[in-house]
Amino acid sequence: MSTTEKPYWEESYKRPGKLDTFGDGKPSKAVADTVVKIKLPAKAMDFGCGEGRNALYLAKLSFETSAVDISEAGIQKLKIMAKESNLNIDARVDDMRAYKFDKYFDLIVCTGCLHLIKREEWQKVLLDLKKYTSRGGFHVVGIFTDKVPEPEDQKGLMVGLFKEGELFTYYQDWEIIESKSSVFEDEHPGGIRHKHAANSITARKP
Ligand SMILES: C[S@@+](CC[C@H](N)C(=O)[O-])C[C@H]1O[C@@H](n2cnc3c(N)ncnc32)[C@H](O)[C@@H]1O
Fold first, then answer.
1. Are 67 and 27 in contact (CB under 8 A)?
2. Residue 112 C-alpha to ligand 1 middle, in angstroms?
């Protein structure tokens, strides 16, 4: 993939009304498992939200929800879907590498994004996400690792693949609720199929 080419999800973000780019539009299971542990009122951030499957789910559950993504198409689609469902989401186009947190969150979700920025960049972002989490607050983070090489159709996109197991080392000072390693094949709109190695974690700030 050249630097001018847009990733495949941009096309899908432009299709209005259909929330199916990732996870069939359903929230991440780890997010659904975590919300039951959080007492409302609570603030949630979907960082690198894409078209916002997790943000929409959280807002429906009455979390005060913020969402950030670098994709204008993704944020635009999220805003439209939130409006249609009468949900209030603070959705912003921004670069997670430059994002300035102005409040603390009880839940931060960051799924499938951090390996899309360089190692030295995600290291800083992860520390910031940890910092701007309230005491007793949760993270649900999922990334891809180098256990499986970057798929051919995504060459040049995954500039910051984690080393296998590395994500978990960032949470040694938090309570680990769940951590998982997997290798799986997935399919996206347009018939794109590829293999990924993933690490995911749900952790709680002491
Ligand atoms: C694989 S998608 C995952 C979307 C969403 N988290 C989900 O699980 O459905 C990765 C998202 O990261 C976003 N992204 C990539 N680089 C980014 C950056 N520097 N700042 C903010 N978002 C970024 C992309 O625009 C894309 O929407």
1. no
2. 7
- Identify the sign of the CA torsion 8, 11, 14, 20: negative
The CATH number corresponding to 9-18+29-204 among 3.40.1350.10, 3.40.50.150, 3.20.20.140, 3.30.70.1400 equals 3.40.50.150
Write the pLDDT tens digit of every residue in 20-32: 888 888 999 999 9
How many whole angstroms from 198 Cα to the centroid of ligand 1?
A: 15
What tens digit of pLDDT does each residue of 94-149 get? 999 999 999 999 999 999 999 999 999 999 999 999 999 999 999 999 999 999 98
Q: Report domain extents, the chain.
A: 9-18+29-204
Residues with CB under 6 A from ligand 1: 9, 22, 48-50, 53, 69-71, 74, 95-97, 111-113, 116-117
Residue whose CA lies nearest to ligand 1 atom number 25 = 71
Q: What is the pLDDT of residues 161-206, one digit of tens each?
A: 999 999 999 999 999 999 999 999 987 767 778 899 999 999 999 9
Distance 41 CA to ligand 1 centre (A): 26
Amino acid at 34: T
